User: Fold this.
Amino acid sequence: MRVVYSDESGVGNLAKEPITVVAAIVINMDRDWDSIETDLRKIAEEASSALLDKNRSLKGRKLYSIIRKDIPEHEEATHVLNRILAVLLKYRIAIFYGAVDRHGLKNYLADRSVPEEDRRLTSYDVAFDECLARLDSAALTFTDERILWIADRSDKVREPATRSSLTYYRFKQGLKITRLLTNDDPRISVADTVYFGHSEESVALQLADVSCSTITNYLLEKHYGRDYCATDFYELIRRNVMNDGAPVILQELNRSRN
Assistant:
């Protein structure tokens, strides 16, 4: 059984967070979960409380914040982050992501010629759709079973948005298949709904969080010239990122996506 765990970043202040990212990791639960859970819990237990979110959880934003500062915890934070990323490598955990430039999307939506169905889009909708589409396209290469998707319960707004995005993606796939192959099944690899969990209670969601932070900070360095200390860490997991090198949607939303 494969389970996808996802997390998002860049849904707060636009000036501070110019890009929205949704990242998802795929875990083979039957083969790897017990070992992954043991490894991650050991990392959290051995880390000093100053490095943990609310003294208990592994969180990418906090680790990178410490790494960027000239403080005594810098060295330990670097060590802990390396250990977390090593889990991705050790178990060959695939990572997918979708990302969108928020200013570019805002400019696109301001265009009067934008299709009516696009006007309600948020940057989270676009990033989630990009992440889901890339994962769905690749999923049949490693499993014939439906994939269970568990997202971080970040707030009450994004839960219905996530579920509606999955429904809309399934609808679009059905339209595409109908146009090409009449009466074929518009089946997608992801199960019928997205479930939600609290990252404080799930080390898998914490691993997704660290993956999302690493990708986000790397993209901010590469495309926005910010010094977020993530490029070297991203290089460690680059081969696990299934859509590494895929261009971020930096200007207008690609109208062909519908």
